[in-house]
Amino acid sequence: MPKKPFTRRQFLNVATMSAAVMALGRGLYAAEPKRTNVLLITADDANWDSFGCTGSKTPDVSPNIDRLAAEGMRFEHAHVTSAICQPSRSAIGTGRYPHRSGALGFDPIRQDVPTIVERFKSAGYYTGILAKVEHMTPPSKFCWDSVVSGSDLGNGRDPELYYRYTEAFLKRAKSLGKPFFLMANSQDPHRPFPTSEGTGAASFADKVSRVYKPEEVEVPGFLPQGISDIQREIAQYYTAVHRLDETVGQILRALRETELEDNTIVIFLSDNGISVPFAKTNCYENSTKTPLIISWPGKVRPGVVDREHFVSGVDIMPTLIDALGLPAVEGMDGKSFLPVLDGKRLWERDKVFTFITSTAGRNFYPMRSVRTATHSYIFNAWSDGKTQFKNEPMSGLIWNAMVQAGKKDPKIAERCKFYLYRVPEEFYDLKTDPCELNNLIHSDSSRAQIDQLRSELLEMMKATADPLLDEFRKRIGA
After folding, report:
1. Collapsed DSSP state (helix, strand, coil) of residue 394
2. 301, 303, 308, 310: CA torsion to nearest 10
C-alpha cells in the first residue's frame, strides 16, 4: 500500500525550525575590494546543449554565445541548484540551497539571508537588473540601483532594447566612477515560443530574424523520436534560442562599445533546462545542467573547456566574492571555484546536489538528487503511486503528442505514465544511458553505486538540516 506523501505544511514546519539553528560560514575577509566589473547574463529555460559550443547541430544558432565561449572557459559539468526560475535565481543570488534561503519555489528569501546585491552595493558597486525582476525577491534584499522590467524590454525578448538599456546602465556606472554589477536576463527561450499557435502574444513572441524549420533541428534524445509535432515545437524553441543569442550579442556589443570589456567578468548560464517533459521542473540531467561560460580578460585562459569539475548555481556568489576580494558572507552552501578558473584542480568537486520543492502553480513535488560524472540518483518524496505530476512544460505540443503517440506505442505510453507518477527512487548509469531512460534502482549489479549516492545525499541533508531528511530516512530505511 503506498505511503502517504510528505506534505508542504510538514516541510515548511521543519524548514522554519531548521533555519533557526543553521549558521554555516565560509571564506576569508580581504582588505580591499578590486574594481573589476561583473556582467551576469542569464537565459530563461535554455537547454545546456542548445548552442554550437555545447554540441548543437542547428545551423548558425548561436554565433555570439559561441564567440563568448571561445574567449573564456566553458564548464561541462555545471548545474543550477533548482530547475525552476525563482529558486534557481535565488540560489545564485544567495549562495544557499532553497531550504536554507526560504526560496522553496516561487517564494521570497528570508530577511536574514545576505544577498549578492547587498554585498556588491556595500562594496561601492553600481548594481542593476534587466528583466526577471520579480523572480528575485523581496526587493528589500535584492536592492538594485537600476531596475528595468521585462515589459520595457519587449517582454524580455527584444535584442535591440537590451542593447539600449545595457548601454545606458554602463554609461551611468562610468559617469559615477563606480564598478558595476549588472544581471541581464533574457526571457528567451521561455514559452511561448515564436510562431507557436495560440500564444496570444504575437506582438513579441513572433518578432524574430530567423525561423527554423523542423528538418533543421534535432529532437533531444530524452524525448520520443519521429513524431512531427515534437519536431515542430523543437524548431519553434530553436527560433527562440537564436533570438536569445542575438540578445547576448547586443549586451556584449554595449559592453565593448563603452570600452569596459577588458575589465569585466562576463558570466553566461541558463536558469534551467528546456520547458518540455523530463527537463524543466525536475532533477534530471536536462533539468539542471547549464551552459556555464565565464570570460575574464587577462585572468581566464580563452577557449578552455573544463570537463572535470562539478560547479553549481550556489557556487557563483562565493566565487565572485573570492575573485573580487570582497568581504566574506556567512551561511553560504556554495564554495568558490576560483582556483579552477586559474587552471588548478580541485579534487573534491566530483558531484552536485539539486533540488525541487514546489512549482509555479504551488504544487508540492519535493525531489532531491545527487549526480556525478557517471551516475545520478533521484529521490522523489512526493511519489506514492497516486499523486499525479503536473507542470508548465506539459502545456505545449510535445506532451500532447507523447500522449497521443502512446495510444499506439506501449513504450511511449509507459514513458508518459512514469512521468506522471514516478517512483520514490531513480538511479541511472550515465555512461551507457546519458538520457536517463532506464531506471536501475533495483539492479543488483548497481547496488554499490546506489548505496554510495544514497549516503552522499543523506550526508548533505543532515549537514543542511533539509526538512526532507526524516522522510528520506523512512523511505530508504536509514
Report:
1. helix
2. 80
For 305-337, what is each residue's pLDDT tens digit? 999 999 999 999 999 999 999 999 999 999 999
Q: Cβ atoms within 10 A of the Cβ of 3, count? A: 12
Contact predicate 386/1, CB 8 Å? no
C-alpha to C-alpha distance for 6 and 181, rounded to whole angstroms: 40
Residues 328 and 363 in one domain: no
Q: What is the pLDDT of residues 137-187, one digit of tens each?
A: 999 999 999 999 999 999 999 999 999 999 999 999 999 999 999 999 999
Q: What is the percent of the chain where pLDDT is above 90?
A: 88
| Residue 266: all three cell numbers together | 562576463
Beta bridge partners of 92: none
Query: 78-104: string of b/e by CB count within 10 Å (b at 16+)?
Result: bbbbbbbbbbbbbbbbbbbbbbbbbbb
3-class SS of residue 134: helix
Partner residues linked to 38 by β-bridges = 181, 265
Closest CA to 40 of 189, 166, 176: 166
Q: Is 183 left (phi over 0), alpha (psi -120 to 50) or beta?
A: beta
Find the domain containing 116 and state its range. 33-349
Task: Write the CB contacts of 141 (distance below 8 Å, at least 6 apart in sequence).
Answer: 108, 109, 111, 113, 115, 117, 118
Please check whether residues 324 and 394 belong to one and the same domain.
Answer: no
**How confident is the model over 415-452, as pLDDT tens digits?**
999 999 999 999 999 999 999 999 999 999 999 999 99
- 308 and 361 inside one domain: no
CATH of the domain at 183: 3.40.720.10
Cα–Cα distance between 366 and 384 in angstroms, integer?
12
> Which residues touch 244 (CB under 8 Å, ≥6 apart)?
43, 46, 186, 188, 189
SS3 266: strand
